[in-house]
Design goal:
The chain is about 50% helix and about 15% strand. The protein contains twelve helices and ten strands.
Length: about 325
């Protein structure tokens, strides 16, 4: 086996960030593209040092005419490497990027739970992190959206999603595949600029590289990394504040305005966002959070119009009462 600087970098990353321990069961999501092939090659090469049990999973969205051939290609790679292979095929073609992502994670989580894998590993890179930051920034978001691609996050109680390549660019994974002559399966949908992320990848990033910063992907990925630490700290502080300010049971929540008034606006907003995430049918938007936050200093008897799902918040003295459908 040839030990490259990329092998050394990923080995150090896994150790320093405590992504995996020895002898864990890793389910690696392999599409057949360059990022996932780079990932599986690196993990298989590191396997003797860590004694992992590695499996390969592939999700066929049925978007393309060649999707079954793509799945067969990945299955053959798994057989050649002597690795367990798991295929999940969509019953109906998935019709959007968001729906495809949701279905894919549900499918991977189900496979992991059925076959006792503790970790699902994906080949997201610094380039993906940069694209996600730009995509969410243009849609309108806070720090949470800008750092959305994190090193790890729980998918369920027993399964954690891990992304070990977040400091590696797509250019580096492509060079790695070329150096080791890995058989990349070219996904034709990656060239279709009707998808927003493809336009960012093919048009916006190259424009920024040419006209502003040739290393813009790494710079944006570093920004996401810094924001991730900020978000983790603020979320913990907001949770402590929420627990100190909240009373109630059933379908009525009481928030102590005196407790909340002492906190900075950033934490007030996060507390309200955390509360709305629990009681609304869908994730709250900026306006939902702002109108609830405004009640912290609003006159007595002030009241919001109904939130989605019918919840209403009202000021009663030192308290905000939120009534909602349990």
């Amino acid at each position: 086996m040839v030990w490259t600087p990329l092998h050394a970098k990923i080995h150090r990353t896994i150790k320093s960030r405590h992504l995996f321990k020895h002898q864990e069961r890793l389910l690696v999501a392999v599409s057949g593209g360059q990022d996932s092939l780079c990932l599986i090659k690196l993990l298989l090469d590191l396997q003797p040092k860590w004694s992992w049990h590695i499996g390969i999973s592939h999700c066929d969205h049925r978007w393309r005419d060649d999707s079954q051939a793509n799945a067969n290609h990945v299955e053959n790679l798994a057989k050649n490497w002597g690795v367990d292979f798991y295929l999940e095929t969509a019953k109906e073609p998935v019709n959007s990027e968001a729906a495809a992502r949701d279905w894919r994670y549900q499918a991977l989580n189900a496979i992991a739970q059925k076959y006792n894998y503790q970790y699902i590993v994906t080949g997201h890179t610094a380039s993906d992190r940069a694209e996600t930051l730009l995509y969410n920034l243009m849609r309108g978001t806070g720090a949470d959206g800008l750092q959305a691609l994190t090193w790890q996050r729980p998918l369920s109680e027993k399964v954690v999603l891990i992304r070990p390549l977040l400091e590696i660019t797509r250019q580096q994974t492509g060079q790695f595949c070329q150096d080791f002559q890995l058989p990349i399966w070219e996904d034709s949908t990656n060239q279709d600029i009707k998808y927003s992320r493809n336009r960012i990848r093919q048009e916006l990033i190259p424009y920024l590289q040419t006209n502003f910063n040739p290393k813009v992907e790494s710079a944006l990925a570093q920004t996401a990394e810094l924001l991730q630490a900020d978000v983790e700290y603020l979320e913990q502080a907001a949770q402590q504040l929420r627990e100190a300010a909240t009373m109630g049971s059933g379908n009525v929540l009481k928030l102590n305005r005196r407790v909340l008034q002492k906190a900075p606006l950033a934490l007030q907003r996060r507390v309200m966002r955390q509360i709305l995430l629990k009681i609304l049918p869908d994730a709250p938007n900026f306006d939902h959070i702002e109108k609830l936050t405004a009640l912290i200093i609003a006159p007595n008897r002030s009241q919001t119009d109904p939130f989605p799902g019918g919840a209403i918040a009202q000021v009663q003295g030192d308290w905000i009462l939120i009534k909602y459908e349990a």
